[in-house]
């Protein structure tokens, strides 16, 4: 008995019929679909622009070091790329210090600065709550001395 060749319509009907698909093929399709959907990122959830806008401004800072010595000064936070930069950081820096903000979390990634007579490394983290920025930072000198500070900064209106 001679079989008739499959027509294109017949082939499509058989391939789209769930009962003709093997469980292995269905499993592979589901796995690939989950893999593709899981690797997609939703850029619409990125609120970094709004977070940056909330932190930008001039702040009055109360800076307390590890010996409980207090110094008051002002800093200015401006947008810089996908983050911010802080001018007059620690009331000692002549160049801005870079930082990031995501939600209420404020981060000062490790940065190294070369002066005339020494190299320092600065890093820290904190939180933003309304118009108040609370953060800790550490200055590490090239002779491994650590200067630890806690700051309360209030945004000026």
How would you characterize the overall build of this protein?
The protein has 157 residues and is an alpha+beta fold. The protein has two domains: 8-44, no CATH class; 48-155, Beta Barrel (Lipocalin), CATH 2.40.128.120. It has helices at 8-16, 23-39, 48-55, and strands at residues 57-65, 70-80, 83-87, 97-102, 105-114, 119-129, 132-141, 146-155. It has an eight-stranded antiparallel barrel with strand order 1-2-3-4-5-6-7-8. The longest helix has 17 residues, at 23-39. The model has no long low-confidence stretch (mean pLDDT 83).
Short overview:
With 157 residues, the chain is α+β, with helices and mostly antiparallel strands. It folds into 2 domains: 8-44, no CATH class; 48-155, Quinohemoprotein amine dehydrogenase alpha subunit, domain 2 (Lipocalin, Beta Barrel), CATH 2.40.128.120.
Tags for this entry?
single chain; 157 residues; alpha+beta; Lipocalin; 8-stranded antiparallel β-barrel; 3 helices; 22% helix
């Amino acid at each position: 008995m001679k079989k008739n060749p499959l027509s294109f319509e017949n082939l499509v009907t058989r391939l789209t019929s769930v009962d003709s698909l093997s469980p292995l093929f269905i499993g592979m399709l589901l796995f690939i679909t989950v893999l593709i959907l899981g690797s997609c990122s939703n850029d619409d959830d990125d609120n970094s622009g709004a977070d940056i806008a909330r932190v930008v401004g001039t702040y009055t800072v109360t800076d307390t070091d590890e010996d409980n010595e207090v110094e008051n000064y002002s800093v200015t936070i401006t947008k810089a790329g996908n983050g911010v930069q802080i001018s007059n950081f620690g009331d000692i820096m002549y160049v801005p210090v870079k930082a990031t903000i995501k939600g209420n979390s404020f981060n000062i990634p490790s940065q190294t600065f070369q002066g005339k007579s020494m190299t320092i490394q600065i890093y820290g983290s904190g939180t933003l709550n309304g118009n108040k920025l609370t953060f800790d930072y550490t200055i590490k000198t090239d002779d491994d001395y650590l200067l630890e500070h806690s700051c309360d900064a209030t945004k000026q209106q």
